[in-house]
Design a protein that fits this description.
single chain; about 270 residues; alpha/beta; Rossmann fold; 2 domains; seven-stranded parallel β-sheet; 8 helices; globular; binds nicotinamide-adenine-dinucleotide
Length: about 270
């Protein structure tokens, strides 16, 4: 049966504390395939919600779930998270680096706020580096995988959102470097590049754009949908479907790739 190898495995997803987000959709999909789930996010903002979402996943899919306080920009928080994962599971099979944000937007590079630029890099890029490095000792020993949620913006320049796009490009390069370094250990590393996916983050961007263009978020959505060959913003589940494929043995010969799930917005040879 496809995806049967995921049953009983353990997956950690960062930035997964919002029910409307891509991280929770990935967690839901992996749980539906029998994976035990460590659901992590910033605790002060999302701790209570993480507990509720873990309860939902356990109830629906009869898997073990653990809510985890993990700020990907804080080394102390990452170190504590490693200890908690070790205490909960004998090993980690799937790491999904999903936490992300775009601070200081919209702004051109020459007017960008330095703190917002650095913080955006820290969450998206160094967060992926920091968590991967810390969790890898729990992943050696059998075939495991890392999935990095990058973005279409890491492949195709998005003006006035420079820090985010540059950080996501760096995530794609990190994915490829680690894929080469870890291949001989049986660890695959791939990136997922979503396009326009309707989450809280995307709604916030549409509202910002609506203010900028003096229109409504609904009008902006209509307008921006014209950029998408398939013609619409997708739901987070389309990203979760790709994540499940890349986490499973169905993709056993795929590593070091950055795969678009964007309705055809970026087409590469
Ligand atoms: N929605 C889209 O259209 C889209 C497109 C391309 C890429 N992405 C990427 O997908 C991922 C998920 O985004 P989303 O759209 O679900 O948005 P979201 O805002 O729902 O999810 C992002 C999550 O990251 C968490 N986060 C922020 N800073 C953190 C930190 N320091 N430590 C730990 N967690 C932190 C937030 O609390 C939030 O839960 C992000 O990496 C984003 O860049 C989204």
């Amino acid at each position: 049966m496809p995806y049967e190898d995921l049953k009983g495995k353990c997956a950690l997803i960062t930035g997964a504390g919002k029910e409307t987000g891509i991280g929770y959709a990935i967690a839901g999909k992996l749980a539906s395939l029998g994976c035990h789930i460590i659901l992590s996010d910033l605790w002060p903002e999302n701790g209570k919600e993480l507990g509720r979402l873990c309860g939902l996943l356990s109830q629906r899919h009869s898997v073990k779930t653990v809510p985890l306080d993990l700020d990907v920009t804080n080394q102390g928080s990452v170190d504590k998270a490693v200890e908690k994962v070790k205490a909960a599971f004998p090993r980690l099979d799937v790491l999904v680096n999903n936490a992300g944000a775009a601070l200081g937007v919209p702004s051109a590079v020459h007017t960008y706020n330095d703190d917002a630029w650095l913080k955006t890099f820290d969450i998206n890029f160094h967060g992926t580096y920091r968590v991967s490095k810390a969790m890898l000792p729990l992943m050696f020993g059998s075939s495991t995988c890392i999935l990095n949620v990058a973005s279409k913006a890491g492949k195709s320049p998005l003006p006035f959102n420079g820090a985010y796009g540059c950080a996501k490009s760096a995530v794609i390069t990190l994915t490829k470097v680690m894929a080469k370094e870890l291949a001989s250990f049986g660890i695959r590393v791939n990136a997922i590049c979503p396009g326009l996916i309707m989450t809280g983050l995307q709604r916030w961007r549409l509202e910002l754009e609506a203010q900028w263009f003096e229109t409504t978020p609904e009008e902006r959505e209509k307008e921006r949908s014209k950029e998408i060959p398939l013609g619409y913003f997708a739901q987070p589940e389309v990203v979760a479907d790709l994540a499940a494929f890349l986490a499973s043995g169905e993709s056993s010969y795929i590593t070091g790739q950055a795969i678009n799930v964007d309705g055809g917005q970026v087409m590469e040879l």
